[in-house]
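#struct-pred
JK: can someone run the complex with uracil? inputs below
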Amino acid sequence: MLPPYTLEMNSEKELRLLHEQIVSCTKCPLHKTRMNAVPGEGPFNARVMFIGEAPGAKEDELGRPFVGRSGILLISMIEKIGLSREEVFITSILKSRPPKNRTPNRTEINACLPHLERQLDLICPDVAVLLGGVAISTIIGPWKVADAHGRFYNGNAQTYFMTYHPAAALRFPSLKKTMEEDFERLRIELGLSGD
Ligand code: URA
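RT: done, structure tokens with the ligand placed:
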């Protein structure tokens, strides 16, 4: 049997290799219109993984996830429950920006999903947080965010937690409080003491 540090080194290296494959991926037409693919970022041994919908303009420009307005709100909520951007893994269902930020289509999701599945396999987070309808319907199936939010779901050897996408809370400010209440549930489940 391999000692644990060997397994850790392998996961770290494999995650780096996977991200190299993602930045040069041409499996869907979005590779022609993107500036940069956005594989995601965070440590290979993160306890919590956040999964959004798709990169926006700023993410496409910088090749980094959640660095625009939604990102600022997401990170503030992450910090409120006692975590930091540096210690969680942040990614999205799609790794390339759809033109004009339109909703990802089935072909794009099917082409990109194996990348996320591999990230989940390598990182094995305690909880993967699904942000918004696209992440929830892709991973769990058809379920309205309004009904699914604040709930945990155990599926294929992974625990998921569902909440709104921060962009929805920016559009409808009353959802910000709802999201904060969801994050409080997440904090309790993770046994964190908060900020
Ligand atoms: N919204 C997402 O879903 N992902 C990002 O990386 C940025 C905004």
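RT: quick notes.
The first strand starts at residue 48 and ends at 52.
Residues 38, 52-56, 59, 65-66, 70, 92 surround uracil (CB under 6 Å).
JK: thanks, will look after standup
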